[in-house]
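Figure caption, in words: inputs first, then the predicted bound structure.
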Amino acid sequence: MEDETCIFCRIISGEIPSKTVYTDTQCIGFRDVNPQAPVHLLVIPRKHFASPLEAEEADEKLIGHLHRVAAELARQHHITEGFRIVLNTGPGSGQTVFHLHLHVLGGRPMRWPPG
Ligand code: 5GP
Ligand code: ZN
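Bound structure (guanosine-5'-monophosphate present):
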């Protein structure tokens, strides 16, 4: 399940340090190393898969759980006035780490459409 070439799997195993803000049996949350907003967190499943394109029916609950954790982190970080959950999918979207992750961005005005 773990992919040793994957940066996020290495963060989950503790091999690469991160500023962790949340952990449970299914996922972890940590601060993005290159924040694009005053609050910029990443929520990632412990299970390695690249994106929703690889998700299976059995992953539906997990993907829902990631969104509930993202909402809880938004509450804890006081950005519920307006925040964004982003799931970049594929190189053309800007995805650079091919382990599914939700960005949770807030603390500044969020423009639309995103770039
Ligand atoms: P993507 O571009 O794939 O949607 O998002 C990957 C995110 O992971 C980027 O925002 C990038 O700053 C972040 N990132 C990449 N490597 C690391 C790392 O080693 N530690 C942390 N905390 N964030 C990382
Ligand atoms: Zn991974």
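The radius of gyration is 14 Å.
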